[in-house]
Automatic annotation (TrEMBL), chain A:
Belongs to the binding-protein-dependent transport system permease family. LivHM subfamily. This is Branched-chain amino acid ABC transporter permease. PANTHER family: BRANCHED-CHAIN AMINO ACID TRANSPORT SYSTEM PERMEASE PROTEIN LIVH, HIGH-AFFINITY BRANCHED-CHAIN AMINO ACID TRANSPORT SYSTEM PERMEASE PROTEIN LIVH. It comes from Streptomyces synnematoformans. It holds the Pfam family BPD_transp_2. The chain crosses the membrane at residues 12-32, 39-57, 63-85, 97-120, 149-166, 195-213, 225-246. The keyword Cell membrane applies.
Length: 309, 413
């Protein structure tokens, strides 16, 4: 068990990545009760946006210098696609039965994947993403990649900023009001359409920031990367209590740590050799999800809402 | 609580939809054989032309096309014009089987080259066997495809008479690497990882068995999902196991990030794998972390073979955008073997193919057993199981961003 701190760090970083993506699922669900399954692809497009910016840079540019511009470009691409999806795919279906926008989301997800596959140069295979050079950073018995510093800084900063925005600003409070009761919020003079667009935009921006973390961590981006990451982030959002932004991050971290623990230790339990290791980690992650939902159907931080749905 | 059942429904629907999306079909080109006069023989091809493994698949397609072109230009078989019909299997067994059915349905198809993946090959074998249509794979390395499920216990039994391959098998590929690493590199502790697929698990198994026989120690094993990107937890396990190197049974889309993440933990140990890691893509994915990694590949290095020089020259002259990759030479030879089998049948049968499709296919399959020629990868001929008689293997190491040949030889098991 002497590698426990390292495995916890592995899980924490992976979980923070899931959490950032999960924010998008949870915010949109909290406000319009829509599961935006195209969110994984919005994440993927952020990665390609950042890559495009990097390719525009002259050769030999320092990655640390390029990073802010890459973040801007990634956020711009993801937000554009997210807001576009809301405007042209979901808004026309606002009054339609719940399943219609859901199927639209699945269709949009496939369409976005295929669009990148077909039109982004060389995207039929994984495209290499720039990485920080230099050795790992040692913190006692834990060591992390240079690129993970970005995630380590970005995740808490984003969460604090979002928490501040939602609780302290006018728009944030309008958002909370819309999520609690859209009709009354509208009567109180809140432009709910604008709030919905804002939820999509924030989700997109977080996904873009996560996409850069993904690129820096794994060294490449590909057109299918949103599928698994999106599914895991959705799981994290449900685990943490869908609709709750802190729940999304906590759900992500719990999921990431559970995966790392399952990979590292389940195989060591006598009689469980068969069920340990990397191939079983997803099974254990979902076992955990089911257990949590059995005990707390609303998720870790979710509130019981009986007036919805 | 309608809302919870909606969540469950959603998850189910998504899972279903995403599975389906993985096997979209491509349209036919709808082109009909031109070639005024004479017969047109279509050679089918199945390989992953899109997706993660497309680098290898496109190398296979281009090389087969080159063989077809060469045969037509030289009028290799008098009165017969060859054509290639390439189908994309996206590395999925299910799609491969659909493609097989489609190729069988085309009466002009007299032989099929491919596929790349052993599990895809497995799914196609029966379809071709039922139609007596000959199949020559340039890249399937799982021994069971030719020698039956019980090959390991020495009880070899050829399951399908229509299946041939020009690549050697994992039964010798894994042990070949094990011997080199133990005897030459003096590495004694290995961490074995595989991706649970037909190819990966088989390869890792044969490697580990030989390595233990030699006196080496397997200090840990793990299995990963081929679609995963995050291997940090596995990498930490590898580091703490004190292994001298990692043996990975699987393909480069997961192998490259795995190798990179193992090195990122600070463990300075190479990752070793089979021919599915022998791709330029492996290096471009793992970047500087690929340095020192070793891959085995079937055959001698093409660049060192006299027979391959003409192939490499022609391939470059044809101006293909993508490299011929690990299986280009084998794909050329597989295609050429089909052409030779067609030639043998035509010569037997007074200068033309038997009119009846089934009869022609059966005759070509039977002729394949006797095919023998000097190909790109050396002499090409098949033994009683449909395996190549060429048992040459090589190991390559990544040095300065390129695969450099380390050693080459015939495996004596």
């Amino acid at each position: 068990m002497n590698d426990l701190p390292q495995q916890l760090a592995n899980g924490l970083l992976l979980g923070a990545l899931y959490g950032l993506i999960a924010i998008g699922y949870t915010m949109v669900y909290g406000i319009v009760q829509l599961l935006n399954f195209a969110h994984g692809e919005i994440f993927m497009i952020g990665g390609f946006g950042a890559l495009t910016m990097w390719l525009w840079m002259p050769d030999g540019t320092n990655l640390a210098v390029a990073l802010p511009l890459m973040i801007l470009m990634a956020v711009a691409c993801s937000v554009l696609v997210a807001v576009g999806a809301e405007r042209f795919a979901y808004r026309p279906l606002r009054g339609a039965p719940r399943l219609a926008p859901l199927i639209t989301a699945i269709g949009l997800s496939i369409a976005l994947q295929q669009a990148i596959w077909a039109w982004y140069p060389d995207a039929t295979k994984a495209r290499p993403f720039p990485e920080f050079t230099g050795s790992r950073i040692e913190l006692g018995s834990v060591s992390i990649q240079r690129g993970d510093l970005y995630l380590l800084i970005a995740a808490p900063v984003c969460m604090i900023a979002l928490g501040f925005f939602v609780s302290k600003t006018r728009s944030g409070r309008a958002m909370q009001a819309t999520s609690q009761d859209p009709d009354t919020a509208k009567l109180m003079g809140i432009n709910t359409d604008r709030i919905i667009v804002m939820a999509f935009a924030i989700g997109g921006a977080f996904a873009a920031i996560a996409a850069i973390a993904h690129g820096l961590r794994y060294g490449n981006v590909d057109f299918r990367m949103g599928f698994i990451a999106g599914l895991k982030a959705f799981t994290a959002a449900v685990l943490g209590g869908i609709g709750n932004i802190y729940g999304a991050m906590i759900g992500g971290i719990v999921l990431g740590v559970a995966e790392a623990m399952a990979t590292a230790y389940v195989g060591n339990i006598p009689g469980m050799e068969q069920f340990g290791g990397g191939s079983w980690k997803d099974v254990w992650a979902f076992v955990l999800l089911i257990l949590v939902l059995l005990l707390r159907p609303q998720g870790l931080l979710g509130e019981r809402v009986s007036d919805r749905a | 609580m309608r809302h919870r059942s909606l969540l469950i429904l959603t998850t189910a629907v998504t899972a279903g939809a995403l599975t389906l999306s993985a096997c979209g079909s491509r349209d036919d080109d709808g082109e009909d054989g031109g070639g005024g006069g004479g017969t047109t023989v279509v050679i089918g091809l199945d390989a992953p032309l899109t997706g993660d493994l497309s680098a290898l698949g496109i190398g296979i397609e281009n090389s087969a096309e080159l063989a077809v072109k060469t045969a037509n230009e030289n009028e290799e078989v008098e009165g017969v014009t060859f054509e290639l019909e390439a189908l994309d299997d996206v590395a999925q067994a299910q799609q491969g089987q659909q493609n097989a059915t489609k190729l069988v349905g085309n009466e002009d198809v007299m032989g099929v080259v491919g596929p790349l993946n052993s599990d895809v090959g497995q799914s196609m074998q029966k379809v071709f066997a039922d139609a007596d249509l000959v199949q020559v794979s340039p890249a399937n390395t799982n021994p069971a495809l030719t020698q039956g499920e019980n090959w390991q216990s020495g009880d070899k039994d050829r399951p399908f008479d229509t299946y041939f391959r020009t690549s050697t098998t994992d039964a010798i590929q894994g042990p070949f690497a094990a011997q080199y690493l133990y005897n030459e590199e003096k590495l004694t502790k290995v961490f074995v990882i595989d991706d649970k697929k037909t190819y990966g698990a088989g390869l890792a198994g044969t490697f580990a068995k030989e390595f233990k026989n030699l006196g080496g120690k397997v200090v840990g094993t793990d299995h990963v999902n081929p679609d995963d990107k995050d291997f940090s937890a596995v990498a930490t396990k590898v580091k703490n196991s004190g292994a001298d190197f990692v043996y990975y049974g699987g393909e480069y889309p997961a192998g490259a990030p795995l190798a990179a993440q193992v090195k990122e933990t600070g463990a300075k140990i190479p990752t070793v794998g089979g021919d599915a890691l022998f791709s330029g893509e492996y290096i471009s994915l793992a970047k500087k972390n690929a340095e020192g990694d070793i891959a085995s590949a079937v055959g001698a290095p093409l660049e060192q073979l006299d027979t391959a020089k003409q192939f490499i020259k022609n391939y470059e002259a044809a101006g293909y955008k993508d490299a011929y990759e690990a299986y280009g030479g084998y794909s050329y030879d597989s295609t050429w073997a089909i052409i030779q089998a067609v030639k043998a049948v035509v010569e037997e049968n007074d200068g033309e193919l038997p009119g009846d499709t089934d009869e022609a296919r059966l005759a070509i399959t039977e002729a394949m057993q006797g095919v023998s020629f000097e190909g790109v990868t050396g002499s090409v001929a098949f033994d009683e199981y449909g395996d190549t008689t060429n048992k040459q293997l090589s190991l390559y190491q990544v040095q300065d961003g390129k695969h450099v040949p380390l050693t080459s030889g015939e495996f004596e098991g």
